[in-house]
Amino acid sequence: GDLAAEGVGVIADPEVKTVEITPAHLFFVVASDGVFEFLSSQEVVDMVAMHQDPRDACAAIAAESYKLWLEHENRTDDITIIIVHIRDAQNGVTKRTPAAPGRR
């Protein structure tokens, strides 16, 4: 669909950044521009850090993104978020949180 919208400024080229993962990294976030239109990378990182369960963090980021879109526009953009918790390289284990009741 982006090709058809090219005339109004939609570009289909992704923004790509390469980062070396170190033991200091606890997680990484992949998200659409609908998230980063009104939230900075640091704000998203801070929101993830506030939640043990990445599903709760995704829900909070999506809700905040949606709210901010409607405060600034009469529409929203695609809001997609993926949060990946990284293996604890020092201990060789993956940090996991138990599923909340009703979430399987």
UniProtKB/TrEMBL annotation:
Task: Name all PPM-type phosphatase domain ranges.
Answer: 1-86
The family database entries (InterPro entries) matched by this protein are listed as: PP2C (IPR015655), PPM-type-like_dom_sf (IPR036457), PPM-type_phosphatase-like_dom (IPR001932)
> Which GO molecular function annotations are given, in alphabetical order?
protein serine/threonine phosphatase activity
Q: What is its EC number?
A: 3.1.3.16
**Reactions catalysed:** O-phospho-L-seryl-[protein] + H2O = L-seryl-[protein] + phosphate; O-phospho-L-threonyl-[protein] + H2O = L-threonyl-[protein] + phosphate
Q: What Gene3D superfamilies does this protein's entry cite?
A: PPM-type phosphatase domain (3.60.40.10)
Coiled-coil region(s): none
Which UniProt keywords are present, listed alphabetically? Hydrolase, Protein phosphatase
Query: Can you name this protein?
Result: protein-serine/threonine phosphatase
> Which organism was this protein described from?
Aegilops tauschii subsp. strangulata (Goatgrass)
**High-level lineage:** Eukaryota, Viridiplantae, Streptophyta, Embryophyta, Tracheophyta
